[in-house]
Amino acid sequence: MPTPVGILESFSEMLGGPEIWIKRDDLTGLALGGNKTRKLEYILCDALANAADTIVTAGAVQSNHCRQTAAAAAQLGLECHLVLGGNEPENISGNLLLDRMLGAKIHWAGSNRKGEDIPEIVSQLRQQGKNPYIVPYGGSNEFGALGFASALFELDQQMDTSKLSHIVFASSSGGTQAGLMLGKALLHKSYTIHGINIDKDMSCKSKSFAQIIADLANSTSEKIQAGKRFELNDVTLDSNYVGAGYGVVGDKEIEAISMLARQEGILLDPVYTARAMGGLIDMIKTGYFSKHDRVLFWHTGGAPSLFSYARELLS
Ligand SMILES: *Cc1c(COP(=O)(O)O)cnc(C)c1O
Fold first, then answer.
1. pLDDT for the residue numbered 281
2. 174: Cβ below 6 Å to ligand 1?
């Protein structure tokens, strides 16, 4: 870091809409990169401060968050336990292959894909005399969000953000969006933080996903005594593109992947960034932006899971 920023010239021209810029957080490093690097920098600092020797986190089979957590734990000499949804697939590929290469211990959780089994595993680890530290689903707590508040300060050093009208990105466990909202408030910017909702099941029984994001932005602000307050209507969460659900690749995702690959030589991932970019392409086609807008697409990584979606992508 800082990760590169640039204009997608031929892609913007092809779409005939606003100028589209890209922030390349697919190039953050840490075992093939992605947005979780920024979160883990803060979260694992807290783990070390608490003398943790073991990291426990959860995610989907092709979780980028789990792969990056496994890499960060390896780098810091910590044991890493991943609680993955579903059952062990026949074909070990993409992020799951990398989890294995990075030495993570994998627990299969069946239908408990959001870490419901973590307390049980943590108590077993304690009985073994270990000091486990839980990294929340998607790394989305106050520490994780701080990584993205500071990412906007990084962006500010790299380009003239006064002309920027929108930042568009994939939003799934909310830490990225909460952090960007706080960073924007701290920098007194006027651009819209436009999260594209990836996972239609993200709201809890009692709380909408947008409310979860607002609450996290508030608790993160409190953590650093920033004095910023966020209400539900400060959250721009676009749920028009959730499609058939998390990880189900549709036509918009496939179109986005091949357009960006062929026009710019940049790879999107099928679950997150292709859904967000598919949404952005659709918004341009349907006239959501004016020609004078300047839109930044925040590439949050994830390309390793491409290898596990060959069948869908080539069909
Ligand atoms: C985790 C992830 C996101 C979503 O970030 P959240 O902070 O969980 O909302 C987006 N893109 C990729 C590639 C991810 O791995």
1. 98
2. yes
CA dihedral 34, 187, 140, 301 (to 10 degrees): -10
- Compute the distance from residue 128 Cα to the ligand 1 centre, in Å: 33
Give the mutation target among 300, 305, 306 for probing the ligand 1 site: most ligand atoms within 8 A of CB. Answer: 300
Between the CA of 164 and the centroid of ligand 1 the distance, in Å, is 22
pLDDT-derived band at 310, boundaries 50, 70, 90: very high
CA triple 300-244-280, angle to 5 deg: 40
pLDDT at 202 exceeding the cut of 80: no
- Ligand 1 pocket check for 197: Cβ under 6 Å: no
What pLDDT, on a 0 to 100 scale, did the predictor assign at position 206? 78
Element counts in the chain: helices (H) and strands (E): 11, 10
Sign of CA dihedral 217, 63, 66, 84: positive
272 lines ligand 1 (CB under 6 A): yes
Mean pLDDT of 94-114: 95
Gap between the Cα atoms of 300 and 96, Å rounded: 18
Q: Is the pLDDT of residue 114 over 90?
A: no
Catalytic residue among 10, 12, 63, 150: 63
pLDDT tens figures, 15-65: 998 999 999 999 999 999 999 999 999 999 999 999 999 999 999 999 999
The answer to whether residue 63 is catalytic is yes
The answer to whether the CB of 171 is under 6 A from ligand 1 is yes
Residue minimizing CA distance to atom 15 of ligand 1: 64
Output the CA torsion sign for 225, 228, 233, 236: negative
Q: Is the pLDDT of residue 132 over 80?
A: yes
- At residue 153, what are phi and psi to the nearest 5 degrees? -65, -35
Q: Which atom belonging to ligand 1 lies closest to the Cα atom of 68?
A: 15
Report, as an integer, the average pLDDT of 128-138: 97
Distances (CA, A) of 187 to 68, 142, 182, 191, 220: 29, 18, 9, 11, 15
